[in-house]
Automatic annotation (TrEMBL):
Source organism phylogeny: Bacteria, Bacillati, Actinomycetota, Actinomycetes, Streptosporangiales
All residue ranges annotated as the SIS domain in the record: 29-171, 194-334
Name listed for the protein in its UniProt record: Glutamine-fructose-6-phosphate transaminase
Annotated Pfam families: SIS
Keywords linked to the UniProt accession: Repeat
One of the GO biological process terms: carbohydrate derivative metabolic process
SUPFAM superfamilies given in the database record: SIS domain
InterPro entries: GlmS/AgaS_SIS, GlmS/FrlB_SIS, SIS_dom, SIS_dom_sf
Superkingdom in the source lineage: Bacteria
A single MF term (Gene Ontology): carbohydrate derivative binding
Length: 344
């Protein structure tokens, strides 16, 4: 039986094409809105927060603007006013109906920020209505509880946002992304071997750095949500500061990297350290270098580092769906979760 999650993973190439077609013509609108701002504040929770981590690395590394992640409780619980003059506040919510995120974006605007919404909820959603500019993704309805196509289209929207902020990248790279995802869906690599390697464990460490850090966080979240694993998402720099002690023969590592870029060598070195200590290291992306150092590996996209995260998450999604079924779980409806999460 094909799960809804698996079907929606397969819809991502089309969803990305539709989103890019809708948003790329709006680069000048972004540039005009952001012209008087100097830094960015991302407002998000859950999967959207992981997408924001990608936005932060991309915009700081390629557009040279300082970014930070908001603490919504400052607005919604402490109700403290903060001077946000010169700030571009970017709120991400797949549904556009998460009250905390809508309230925090309205707070940011009241504090002097220019505001952008990134949502799959459409222009009539509360979040879009609260923003100066709404970048609405074109993922279509997502029925499975674990986010797949709504996440990758958020990354696409953030890439377009980066273009509007003057990122030093080749915009033509975005044209390659949908086909790269389609190839990964057809040829994910050693999926069966990685599924079997994780089938009986209770925990896994998922690690990456830089642009790939968002993928590590999102993959860990998916493994928690749908497979009920104690999955820890960490930058490999943080992992090496102490938590690597938990990686052993019972707790493998899942290591994520683009096929090229400044963090690849460190990821490969970490894989060798893990396997050299007698533990298992499973690669995601990283080309032949990471695959050669890993116990088994999932393929990554043939894409430049700045757009690679849109493809790198696909093997993690496929792994989550297959591993959930292998463990006798329904990936479409994890216990205790709903599509729209409200926080008190």
């Amino acid at each position: 039986m094909t799960t809804m999650m698996r079907a929606e993973i397969a819809e991502q190439p089309a969803a990305l094409r539709a989103t890019l077609d809708a948003l790329l013509p709006r680069v000048e609108e972004i540039r005009a809105l952001a012209g008087r701002t100097r830094q960015l504040l991302f407002v998000a929770r859950g999967t959207s927060d992981n997408a924001a981590v990608y936005g932060r690395y991309l915009i700081e590394a390629r557009a040279g603007r300082l970014c930070s992640l908001a603490a919504p409780s400052i607005a919604t619980t402490y109700r403290r006013r903060v001077d946000l003059d010169g700030v571009l506040a970017v709120a991400l919510s797949q549904s556009g109906r998460t009250e905390e995120i809508v309230e925090t974006l309205a707070w940011a605007r009241d504090c002097g920020a220019r505001t952008v919404a990134i949502t799959n909820g459409g222009p009539e959603s509360p979040l879009a209505a609260a923003a100066d500019l709404a970048l609405c993704t074109e993922a279509g309805e997502e029925k499975a509880v674990p986010a797949t196509k709504t996440y990758t289209t958020q990354l696409a929207a953030l890439a377009v946002l980066a273009l509007g902020l003057g990122a030093e990248v080749d915009a033509g790279d975005l044209d390659r992304v949908p086909d790269a995802l389609a190839r990964l869906i057809d040829r994910p690599g050693d999926l069966d071997a990685v599924v079997e390697g994780l089938a009986e464990v209770t925990g896994v460490v998922v690690s990456g750095r830089g642009m790939a850090f968002s993928t590590a966080l999102e993959t860990a979240l998916k493994l928690k949500e749908a497979c009920y694993l104690h999955a820890m998402g960490l930058s490999y720099a943080d992992l090496l500061h102490g938590p690597i002690a938990v990686v052993d023969e019972l707790t493998p590592a899942l290591l994520v990297a683009a096929g090229a870029g400044p963090t690849l060598a460190g990821t490969v070195a970490l894989a060798r350290r893990v396997t050299g200590a007698g533990a298992r290291a499973y690669g995601v992306g990283g080309g032949t270098e990471l695959a050669g150092a890993a116990t088994a590996a999932l393929n990554g996209p043939d894409l430049p580092e700045w757009v690679a995260p849109m493809g790198l998450i696909v093997p993690g999604q496929l792994l989550t769906e297959a591993l959930a079924r292998r463990r006798g779980l329904d990936p479409d409806s994890p216990r205790g979760l709903n599509k729209v999460t409200q926080t008190g």
